[in-house]
Design brief:
Structural class: alpha+beta
CATH architecture of the largest domain: 3-Layer(aba) Sandwich
Pfam families: GntR (PF00392), UTRA (PF07702)
Number of domains: 2
Shape: elongated
Radius of gyration: 22 Å
Helix content: 25-40%
GO molecular function, one term: DNA-binding transcription factor activity
Number of helices: 8
Distance between the termini: 50 Å
Domain HTH gntR-type: 10-78
Organism: Guptibacillus hwajinpoensis
Strand order of the largest sheet: 4-5-6-9-8-7
CATH class of the largest domain: Alpha Beta
Number of strands: 10
Protein name: GntR family transcriptional regulator
Amino acid sequence: MSNEQFTKGEALYLQIKDILIDRIQNGSWKANELIPTEQELIKEFGVSRTTIRQAITVLVQNGLLEKKQGRGTVVKPQQLVGNLGQLKGFAEEVMERGSVPRSKLIRAEFKTNLYHEREMLQVPEDAPILLIERIRFSDDTPVALERSCWPEEIGQLLMKHDLNEAKYYEILENDQIYLNRANERIAAMNATIDEADLLAIRPGEALLEMTRLSYGLNDHPMEYTRTKYRSDQYHYHIELKR
């Protein structure tokens, strides 16, 4: 690309910045991958080193790129955004961002000694509850630890599927089971050694814990889930009106 192909009247570094943003958003440059070197970009665009550095600096300041000492500049993974007031699953949020959701199953088993969960789900005493624990990924980045509990009837349905890939809400809706509403509680905490190991972070780093109790159309509890998110990978969006 030569200078003749740029629009006159607008700074070159801003035009190059927009081109680089397009490459990030359309997936040409993927999260955690090195971008071309300054010299390669200078040759491609036919501009000065200063112009390339200005464009990259803007993208670093905007949180799209990150400079790694000894490596170069990489595409920074973008945070997932949870919208309070919308009942969505993790996979839906990831796909809306243009990424690929993935899971790694830690365990799935029916248990009868989950006393707090039994109370929350309002199931009879000694009734088995399905406990599923998974690591949730956005592309190849571990984002969250998910611990979900389900009444036996729904649990039996979920266990028919590959829980490494299962999208719970999609499975339920395909079986004509619909969630109506949910209550959520959000808290901050620090990662334990085990949690940090699973999420590829350092022990003590901040986590955002979301506890969700979901209800069906009959207003009976159907899902009790605690999800711990990496704070560098997830944040909530709240719109306030007055």
